[in-house]
Amino acid sequence: MAGSGDKPDRAGLLDEVLAGTVRRTGASAGALYLLDEASQVLGLAVLSGVPVEVVWPWRRVPLSAPVPVSDAVRENRLVWVGSQADLARAYPRAAASLPYRFAVAAAPLPGRGRCWGALLLLWPASHPADATPREQSHIRSAARHIARVLDESPVVPAVPEQPRLIPVGAVSRTHGGLLPQAAADYLERLPEGAIGMDLEGRITFLSTAAASLLGLDAGRLLGTRPWQSLPWLDNGIVEDHYRTAVISRDPVAFTALRPPDTPLRFQLYPDASGISVRITGAPTPDDGRPATARTPQPARPFSSGTAQVSSGTAQAGRLYQLVHLAAALTETVAVRDVVELVADQILPAFGADGLVLSAADAGRLKITGSHGYDRETIDRLDGLPLDTDLTPAGQVLADGTPSFFASPDEMARRYPRAPQMSGKEAWAFLPLVISGRPVGCCILSYDRPRDFSADERAVLTSLAGLIAQALDRARLYDATRDLAHGLQQALLPRSLPALPGLETAARYLPASHGLEIGGDFYDVIRIDATTAAAVIGDVQGHNVSAAALMGQVRTAIHATAGAPPDQVLTRTNRVLADLETDLLVSCLYAHIDLVRHEMVLASAGHPPPLLHRAGRLPGVVALDPGPLLGVDPGVAYPVTVLPLRPGTTLAFYTDGLVESPGTDPDRMAGDLARLLAGYSGQSLDHVMDALLHHARPTAHYTDDIAMLLLRTTPPPA
User: Fold this and answer.
1) What one-character DSSP code corresponds to residue 629?
2) Rounded CA gap, 58 and 312, in Å?
3) I want to staple 638 with a disulfide (CB 3.0 to 4.6 A). Which of 190, 247, 409, 624 is the partner?
4) Which of 247, 210, 246 is nearest to 230 (CA)?
5) CB under 8 Å, gap of 24 or more: what pairs does 418-425 form?
6) What pLDDT, on a 0 to 100 scale, did the predictor assign at position 295?
7) Which helix (H) or strand (E) holds 53?
């Protein structure tokens, strides 16, 4: 693209830089993604080397998506994936929906004060799995060059509705003195068929023998895709072979049956300019029956793809888009995960601006999540009856058939009040139904009128079933989690008692995955005005059984609080034996005497507390622990006496604080003890924040964590 005069405009410069980068690096294709900071979505702006239809579903990629181009921008680094095995390990969801062999690199575009987006490059399957330092340098240099062009642009470039497709450059040809007519005469004399296809899959040339073998006049084949003009090739598999050739640049061979009984063998030879196809008669098996379709040889398919925009390329594209989204939906756990997945993945894939996801609950549609709507609109739509006639939601749930409305006028003809409720211009109402049971409704909406193609309708209809399964599963998970979480919260203390001379603070953090509950517990029990008991423990497991047993253990400890610590653990151990549970419990019990300035501790296999005294080095309390509760009902528990002067700080915790993959628990405990000393003058809540952030800086907990902080203070004057 060029502007006035000899200088190309900014778009032309971007096109030149991308095409030049593809040529210099030996890549087979390249793309430029621009970051829309408002929506946090990467939009495909420029494409080279592959058809737009092949990458159509990837033209909008959420910044949070687990794909190379998003990782490159989020983490500000060059991402290289050199093989199918690497893709499966690093990006399993993407690997499920990209069944082609290729290597890919993604690099951020570092501008002045911002990241513009990412450069994406693809190499054929023949490329080595590792990128050389020179290649990496070329990629980073090209990304910086593109960023400079964008920095100098007088206006911030917007993501186009359709990406620009640019040629990589002419491929050098050596004809050996043959004129085009001579070359055509040469092909005409061969008994086999010859076809030329562009990278879009359209036939640009075919010999007379090819037309004869395919059984159709050349005039009806030129400019068409074979699977469009030949019904016996319109089975999805043929298009998949074409995609393999385009993306992987692998030679591909397959056999197809031309009705009624003529097997033909197709051999595809791709390069940067297109695909050459050789057609020959295929041998029949020894029994004389015609050969059937065979899998491609010698290469295996591996690469891009999902739904297409043209009807002729819909089948394989539809399959890959559904595979991609199905893989994403299988990773959802809670209802909020389903809502975020639909908002982050499905809305960009179909260019939608708004989302309302409702679940059927007690005869009404309760909105579980939304995107692109104001609060007032959501309040109006929330709680509509399942048979509502205010919007199409009731009708689509009643008959289980999606409804699509391309404009407000079309909507108003059937539902006069619906267009005014949201201000949207087009809608797709998708019923979420499982075995005839309504689960809910998913509404995608658009800020502009939109015609829904037959392919989009088919994909969205299939997608509704996947969303219904995910939403139903997530609601069951949420119900179970809420039950367990409510049980656990009811069993943990609502507040800690206040004693003169003793400050306390406590916190419980659930695991980041699973039911987000566990058997960790803590408590401070007031015995009298000057004595108290502090206890912390951990029941095995992260389920309702663990939470229930935690409540029983805590009750047993309360019943014996005030007795010597070893007796408290001994009696609680006997209670567990009577319960005949298979779960084991660790526990640390401390008797605190604020008059004698003394603490007596007993441990049942629990991590020792962290200790800091004013003017002394911090460390971990040396304890002689007994076995876990529930191991041996007759075991005795040794005690440890600890001086408790004013200004002493102790941190009780469960093992989730110090144990994580790749971490030495003893070293972590020592680090936390030194950190405890460094925050000695701060409030206990501030100290607890510091300890938790040091132990788990990412806020992802593989195990639940309970913490209890104690600090003795001077008695009041």
Assistant:
1) B
2) 19
3) 624
4) 210
5) 418/390, 418/391, 418/392, 421/377, 421/380, 421/381, 421/390, 421/391, 422/354, 422/373, 422/377, 422/381, 423/377, 424/353, 424/354, 425/449, 425/450
6) 36
7) helix 52-55
Q: Which of 524, 531, 532, 515 is nearest to 492 (CA)?
A: 524
pLDDT in tens, 443-482: 999 999 998 887 788 888 888 888 888 888 888 888 877 7
The two structure tokens encoding residue 166: 């640019």
- Predicted confidence (pLDDT) per residue in 131-180, tens digit: 888 888 888 988 998 888 888 877 767 777 778 888 765 444 444 444 57
How distant, in Å, are the alpha carbons of 171, 360, 495, 514 from that of 510?
60, 29, 18, 9
- Indicate the DSSP class of residue 453: P
410, burial (CB in 10 Å: exposed 0-12, middle 13-18, buried 19+)? middle
Contact 411, 418 (CB under 8 A): yes
Pairing of strands 274-281, 502-509: unpaired
Selection from 612, 373, 334, 355 nearest residue 463 by Cα: 355
Place of tokens 């300019």: 273
Quote the distance between the C-alpha of residue 10 and its chain's center.
Answer: 34
140, 107 contact by CB (below 8 A): yes
pTM confidence score: 0.51
pLDDT of residue 1: 38
Query: Which tokens hold the place of 538?
Result: 């951990």
Encoding tokens for residue 100?
A: 């082609």
